[in-house]
Design brief:
The complex is a heterodimer of chains A (127) and B (656).
Chain A lengths: L5 E5 L3 H13 L3 E5 L2 H5 L9 E5 L7 H10 L6 E5 L4 H9 L4 E4 L4 H14 L5
Parallel strand pairs in A: 1-2, 1-3, 3-4, 4-5
Chain B lengths: L14 H5 L8 H27 L10 H11 L2 H22 L7 H39 L4 E4 L5 E4 L1 H7 L3 H4 L4 H4 L8 H11 L1 E9 L5 E12 L5 E10 L1 H23 L3 E6 L1 H8 L3 H5 L1 H7 L1 H10 L1 E5 L1 H7 L20 H12 L3 E9 L5 E9 L10 E7 L1 H56 L5 H31 L5 E3 L1 H11 L1 H6 L2 E7 L6 E3 L1 H18 L8 E9 L3 E8 L6 H4 L17 H11 L4 E4 L7 E7 L7
Parallel strand pairs in B: 12-14
Antiparallel strand pairs in B: 1-2, 1-5, 3-4, 4-5, 6-7, 6-10, 8-9, 9-10, 11-13, 14-15, 15-17, 16-17
Helix pairs in contact in B: 2-3, 2-4, 3-4, 3-5, 4-5, 13-16, 17-18, 21-23
Classes of the chains: A alpha/beta (127), B alpha+beta (656).
Chain lengths: 127, 656
Amino acid sequence: MPAVPVIAIVDDDEEVRIATGSLVRSLGYTARIYTSGRAFLECHDAPVPDCVLTDVQMPGMSGLELYQGLLARGSTVPVIFMTAFPTNRLRDTLLAAGASDFLKKPCDGAEIIRSLHRALHTGTRST
Amino acid sequence: MHARPKQAREVSMDARLVAGPSALGTGDEGRGRLRGLGALALGCAAALFLIDAFTPLEGAVAVLYVVVVLMAARAFERNGVIRVAIGCLMLTAVAYLLSHDPLDRDSALLRAFVSLAAIGVSTLLVLRNQATATILAEQAELLELTHDPIFVRAPSGIATFWNRAAEDLYGWRRDEVRGRRVHALLRTVFPDGEAAIRAELMRTGRWEGELVQSVRSGAKVVVESRWSLQRDARGEPVAILETNTDITERRRAHAALVQSERRYRTIFDSARVSILQQDWRAVRAALDALPAETRATLGTYLDGHPEMVRTLRRSVTIVEANAEMRRLIGAGEEAAPPRTLDAYLPDDEPTFAASLAALARGDAFFEGETAIRTLSGARVPILFGITFPSEPGGFECVLVFAVDITERKQAQEALLAVQAELAHAARVTTLGELTASIAHEVNQPLAAIVTNAEAALRWLRRDVPDLMEAASALRRVVASGTRAGEIVSRIRTFLAKAPPPRDWIDLREMIDESAQLLERELARSGVRLMRELASDLPAILGDRVQVQQVLINLMINAVQAMATVDDRPRRLILRVAADAAAVRVTVADNGAGIPDEVVEQVFRPFFTTKPDGMGMGLAICRSTIEAHGGRLWVSGHEGPGAAFHFTIPTTPGRRS
């Protein structure tokens, strides 16, 4: 039996952060919550997550910068982006950069779940 | 003495000696010599008298008095000669009376009479000769006075006369020339060879032509030379008189002129600039015929007399169009360019009238931008410049330079289109940014609500429902819902609170600025803008940008309404008047007008007659004006044309 997947959630909005964490936990996964991209990247003692669920527009470090930071250190962990202001261009940029999925807020819980499943089953775990 | 004027020596440098003491330029030396000669004559006369009276010589000694008379002729003028002659006659008579008995009628008496007759006849001859010589001297003096260099030479080429002008031109004095061959001295170059000239001179007695000679300093002069041949009684050539006119300067000026003309030709023919040489004499005459006060305000005058503009356009004739201009209007080798300016200009072309006003003002130059008509009827946009002649006689050659600016125009239009697109993009971006921030603000709580609700469902659906988790998720749904509502009302409050900008608007300035913005549009559409602004306009209070947008919108509508007008000049009238309560702006066109059945609808949103129109223009204009407390309406829709009016109430206390 495989270990319980760990999902990292990065969002500057507390309500969204907590709600997403609750949803992830309700699915039986372990949710680890970060308030910013920097907080996530600088947390070295935690094990590498199985998937990252991050907001795009955040003060300081954007979701894209977070993703670029992960790629720069050779990570292949699947990243799902969520944004309250989706544009086609942003979507194309992120998917071209290798994003696992691009979701617009507010998004259906079922959609998040489908996206998580897809990421966990096709994504390559980095070690 | 030499009485025959045909002999070379008589027209010689020694003419003064022939002519006696009255001849020109007698020097001190000559005067002394003459005085000696006079004394000698008197001495001779005294000696003869003594011999005649007191020696027993039988013979006509008294005949030798003729020598005295001849000497006197050289030394004295006419009266002196006569006195000497009378003296000689008296001495002869006295000598006869002293040595002979007056009553003897012998041969001595006869000899005395012969002597008297000889003295008398020789005196008459001498006097006549002296008169002829005087005329010659006067003629020689005239030759001296003339500005043209004149010299006389013997057929051998030796100079015999050399006037002062010749001294001035050639730098050689007459005594330096004496005895020298003139053409060798002057190193004359004969264009056709000297032999040919001599042959013609011998045949006709004259020759005329141009010669190149060298003056003393070595400089070359070009002279126009006229030769006359003098022959003696037997027909033998004795002298050649040459009159030379220095044409070096004229030659140089001519050469410069030729050079200048050639340069002009080259420019005219090969310039990549279109050039029209026009004759404006009729225009100049017509303007000069106007009263001075009309000329001073010609622009206004021509506004009221379009027929005069038309007539003057027809009176400007085209002298020549260069290759570039012919290419521009599509005139090839076979199709000649039109003969009058009228054919080049579209009807109601505004810059011609403006150029007339500039000319009447006395401007030296006029430039502008317009369109000219090609032979096929197309319009080509050009930039042009007219240089008006400075002197009244120059109006037969007025040069107009023009440059085809089609490409520039297209580039400009492309640029404007890009600018418009950018402006649009900027607006969209601003709007987009606003939307993004609103969306973000609102979507975050909505996302939280949806996710929390979904999580709550999941907690409840678990095999062992986790009621605690579900309850806290639902509590967060309520909290987020409340927050979303707060955000919406905050945005509404923010938008409602933004105060509309209020500026003092100077309508005159706004109209100038709008006319400037639409200048190209007006020119391209061939629309003439006429402004009728009241002199004393109050400033109004409002949103400058919005009011200007209304004005420009109405003006563009008016221009577009006249697009199909071909039978009359396209006129756009901008009229601004004010009363105590409000300023009233009227934008009137003479276009197609508005059909009765739609006149009520033009202000409704989404009503449009334009294929790509949104139908929002007039609706927004009306709401803008109403937001300023004014009204916007249309009148005169029965045509031709329509007039849109709007009012904006005045605020007391300020005038523009």
